[in-house]
UniProtKB/TrEMBL annotation:
This is Nitrile-specifier protein 5. GO terms for cellular component: cytosol; nucleus. Transmembrane segments: none annotated. Its cofactor is Fe(2+). GO terms for biological process: glucosinolate metabolic process; nitrile biosynthetic process. It comes from Hibiscus trionum (Flower of an hour). It holds the Pfam family Kelch_KLHDC2_KLHL20_DRC7.
């Protein structure tokens, strides 16, 4: 992919959409994208409805759910294994960090509370979560008494949590990092650790060891709360906060609107250019909901909403697909 470029497409939306929000989560099962959580006013959860977007008809609807419905929250994460969605943590309306772990069966539309005790990750928000075909991974985030750097895996077959070794001081506790799993190895990219970070770390579960990864090329500037997906051997990141606001979470810092790819074999970053077009480009933003999805049979990055440089919550939806020049 020496001549990688890419294209953003803005998707039309029909039906009852979630509306403008940030600090929410999205995941895709089949040809449907599910969205949960988020805020319109800073730190105030909007609702606890589960919205679904049909990627074929571009139509939103609200899922009629049963079971242990999670209360509203911000800074929450979602990931899917097969037809089951997993949701962990977040922060409630009283700004309390949460450690509830839920599953949602997309076939029966039923929520189940799987754990909310010390068998799994501690209370946190603005952490990162990803999945492969057997595990759901949780890393870092904002804990009750500071930023975290612990890594956990939930084995969906045995229905139990696994706590991995912590990376040590080289990988500081952080919120809003990128998290990716490629060929069994788990990658932590950037994040906010009191300052925007530009380091990359990798954990090998087979060896049980962490390593700090030295990268080269067109390296992105330090950032957090960006969108992250895996396409082949590449970790793709888009947007994020590159300069925090003096108001913290109440304000909007400086955001990026760029797309970069990290080749996990050569460890070289490359800027994945797209043709600037304000009609089809999401522009600078952070705290988006994001997931990998298919468009015309090609895997890409789906982005919904987020926060803008003017501190306005957004309600649009885009997909970025790479192409080879």
């Amino acid at each position: 992919m020496a001549g990688v470029q890419g294209k953003w497409v803005k998707l039309n939306q029909n039906g009852t959409s979630p509306g403008a929000r940030s600090s929410h989560a999205i995941t895709i099962v089949g040809d449907k994208a599910y969205i949960f959580g988020g805020e319109f006013t800073p730190r105030v959860p909007v609702d606890n409805k589960l919205y679904v977007f049909d990627l074929n008809t571009l139509t939103w609807s609200v899922v009629d759910v049963t079971g242990d419905v999670p209360p509203p929250r911000v800074g929450v994460t979602m990931a899917a294994v097969g037809e089951t969605i997993y949701v962990f943590g977040g922060r409630d309306a009283a700004h309390k960090e949460l450690n509830e772990f839920y599953s949602f069966d997309t076939r029966t539309n039923k929520w189940v509370l799987l754990s909310n005790d010390d068998s799994g990750p501690t209370h946190r928000s603005y952490h990162s979560m990803t999945a492969d075909d057997r595990h759901v991974y949780v890393f870092g985030g904002c804990g009750v008494s500071g930023r975290l750097n612990d890594l956990w895996a939930y084995d969906v077959a045995y229905q139990k949590w696994i706590k991995y070794p912590t990376p040590g001081d080289s990988c500081k506790g952080r919120g809003g990092p990128g998290l990716a799993v490629i060929q069994g190895k788990i990658w932590v990219v950037y994040g906010f650790a009191g300052m925007e970070m530009d380091d990359v770390h990798c954990f090998d579960p087979v060896q049980g060891k962490w390593s700090q990864v030295e990268t080269s090329g067109e390296k992105p500037t330090a950032r957090s709360v960006f969108s992250t997906v895996v396409i082949g051997k590449f970790i793709i990141i888009y947007g994020g906060e590159v300069d925090p606001s003096d108001l913290g979470h109440l304000g909007a810092g400086k955001f990026s609107g760029e797309v970069y790819g990290l080749d996990t074999e050569t460890l070289v970053w490359k800027k994945w250019e797209d043709v600037p077009d304000l009609e089809t480009h999401p522009g600078p933003r952070g705290w988006c909901a994001f997931a990998s999805g298919l468009r015309d049979g090609q895997l890409g990055l789906l982005v919904y909403g987020g926060n803008s440089p003017s501190n306005d919550r957004l309600d649009d939806i885009f997909i970025f697909t790479p192409c080879v020049a």
